[in-house]
């Protein structure tokens, strides 16, 4: 029974290819592209560590291309490419692929949440067993996690992705669904976010003279 339970669960991980100038652009404006890349690579490592032992299927979706070598063990993670014109369409297509593959409970996360742990993800999957949807609000007005049993028609459409309106617009789309809220968490998009984590700050040089 327990084995069947896990077989129905799928974790989607959205990641950007770690290339200078392509990741953490708002953060790079303050600390420089190379420092922002260093932070992002550390966050990717964190995401890999908290998901690798999770007893669900795991698909990692790259933004640009699937590299030959990376940190994601092919025996644990299936590697795929995001498909779509914007983030909403890319997420919807990823969910749709999961449901078409026979999964019943699908959760999506990004790859840059330092506050997220393996136990949080276990809790999210357990929560989704007893609800139609689960959402993890981000403190910047977006969300860091979304779990669904089906794809509501508007949830990935008509959003200004990356803005502080995404969460409220998504909640409006899900108002007629049984939705469980997780604890709010902090995304790392700006220098003010980074300042809350001395361990991450220590990764970058204080002598960085870039903007």
TrEMBL record:
Coiled coil: none
Domain of life: Bacteria
InterPro entries: Nucleotide-diphossugar_trans (IPR029044), Trfase_1_rSAM/seldom-assoc (IPR018641)
Segments passing through the bilayer: none
Protein name: Glycosyltransferase
Organism name: Salinimicrobium sediminis
Taxonomic classification: Bacteria, Pseudomonadati, Bacteroidota, Flavobacteriia, Flavobacteriales
């Amino acid at each position: 029974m327990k084995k069947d339970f896990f077989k129905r669960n799928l974790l989607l991980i959205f990641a950007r290819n770690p290339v200078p100038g392509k990741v953490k652009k708002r953060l790079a404006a303050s600390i420089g592209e190379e420092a922002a890349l260093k932070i992002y690579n550390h966050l990717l490592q964190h995401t890999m560590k908290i998901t690798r032992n999770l007893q669900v299927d795991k698909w990692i979706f790259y933004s640009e291309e699937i590299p030959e070598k990376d940190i994601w063990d092919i025996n644990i993670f299936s590697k795929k490419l995001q498909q779509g014109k914007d983030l909403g369409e890319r997420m919807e297509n990823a969910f749709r692929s999961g449901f078409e593959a026979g999964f019943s409970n699908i959760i999506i996360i990004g790859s840059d949440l330092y506050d997220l742990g393996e136990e949080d993800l276990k809790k999210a999957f357990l929560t989704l067993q007893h609800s139609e949807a689960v959402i993890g609000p981000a403190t910047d007005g977006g969300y860091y996690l979304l779990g669904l049993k089906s794809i509501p028609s508007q949830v990935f459409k008509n959003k200004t992705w990356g803005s502080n309106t995404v969460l409220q617009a998504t909640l409006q789309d899900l108002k007629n669904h049984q939705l469980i809220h997780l604890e709010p968490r902090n995304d790392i998009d700006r220098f003010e976010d980074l300042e809350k984590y001395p361990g991450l700050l220590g990764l970058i040089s204080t002598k960085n003279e870039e903007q």
